[in-house]
Specification:
Length: 361
């Protein structure tokens, strides 16, 4: 299936093209941007336009074969040179604004996530002379309308979509095809003689596992398909599984949810609230957890109220529920991580399984 380009990579390419046009009067039909892994991504430029004291460029968002709600949107960047060396990124029409805490972007800032910000800045530095700064405004003319069909209203992001992406590349998400594409990762581990694997939701989890010393062949991405991948581990003779990833994803397993896409099931607040209540949390604290928009905001509440012990309890419950799901056919441990990769909690079995795999605990 055909891969696509994220909104972040689209914005970075539009910004670079606008800067090239402003400085050279050229209008290339394609430009290349770099993702954090050093991969070059080529992006087509749809058109150029003039702005006061600057230039603009437009990229047509291409979701590939992914059922991406942003596919076909115009991602626009306007570049105006500044008198200093700073590159300032602003959100224009159709780019949401963060209004509530707990997200990766501070309150009051445009909803342009850290990796897209890095890609935009890196792309501009490639086009600008050394020491030359600029003001770049990212816009999505139809972004506000499309955002109503996303999770942004629930997250407190108003006025448009978010500019997202951790790799710049959109992988096709046809569910059956995607599930089938994940299973070979288990086969690679088995072929390497491994009886233990790390199941993690995505690439960030895989990156964190590598950073902690676990071998690449042992790390298997499972996306949202926790139950499916656990069953495939059983089918292929795996004996031990370390569930490893962001606590906002894995907390769902503690509630017995084994397809973790938010459209299928989402009980993050309820699960944390129930555990906090069972641990003796005050009613006001439980209500604050229930009203939180993100699990990062919940984490702040737990830290503030000396309730971080329930993260360990949640990890143990996730392991227990997962073992029940496969009827005891696997030994399972769970490690919960924060957004920055810090380990928040890991049960005893997680440490044993991870230790055998080289986890530098």
């Amino acid at each position: 299936m055909r891969t696509g380009i994220t909104t972040g990579a689209s914005a970075a390419a539009a910004a670079k093209a606008a800067a090239i046009s402003l400085l050279t009067n050229r209008t290339p039909s394609e430009t290349a941007v770099i993702n954090p892994d050093g991969k070059t991504i080529k992006v087509s430029i749809r058109r150029y336009f003039d702005v006061l004291n600057g230039k603009g460029a437009v990229v047509l968002k291409d979701g590939g074969d992914d059922p991406d709600i942003t596919h076909g949107l115009e991602i626009m960047a306007e570049v105006v040179l500044s008198t200093d060396s700073n590159i300032i990124i602003l959100g224009g029409q159709g780019v949401g604004t963060v209004t509530k805490p707990g997200l990766q972007v501070p309150v009051g800032q445009p909803a342009i996530n850290p990796v897209p910000q890095w890609m935009i800045e890196t792309a501009l530095k490639e086009a600008l002379p050394d020491g030359q700064g600029c003001l770049v405004t990212i816009s999505v003319p139809d972004g506000e309308k499309v955002a109503r069909r996303t999770l942004n209203p629930r997250l407190g992001i108003t006025g448009g979509i978010s500019i997202l992406g951790t790799t710049g590349i959109v992988l096709p998400m046809s569910e059956e095809a995607y599930k089938d594409s994940l299973v070979p990762l288990i086969d690679v581990a088995v072929a390497a003689g491994l009886k233990s694997v790390v199941l993690t939701p995505g690439r960030l989890g895989a990156k964190w596992a590598a950073a902690h010393g676990m071998p690449e062949k042992a790390v298997v991405e499972m996306s949202n398909f926790v139950g499916f991948m656990l069953e495939k581990c059983v089918d292929r003779g795996i004996e031990q599984v370390l569930l490893w990833g962001h606590h906002g994803k894995l907390i769902k397993i503690a509630a017995g949810i084994f397809h973790t896409h938010s459209k299928v099931a989402d009980a993050r607040q309820e699960t944390y609230a129930a555990l906090a209540a069972a641990h003796g949390a005050a009613k006001e604290t439980v209500l604050a957890i229930m009203e939180s928009l993100t699990t990062e905001a919940i984490l702040e509440i737990l830290i503030k109220n000396n309730l971080t012990e329930i993260i360990s309890i949640a990890a143990e419950r996730a392991s227990s529920r997962a073992e029940q799901y496969v009827r005891g056919s696997l030994k399972i441990g769970t490690a919960f991580l924060a957004m920055n990769g810090k380990i928040l909690a890991a049960d005893q079995r997680a440490r044993l399984i991870g230790g055998k795999l080289g986890w530098r605990i």
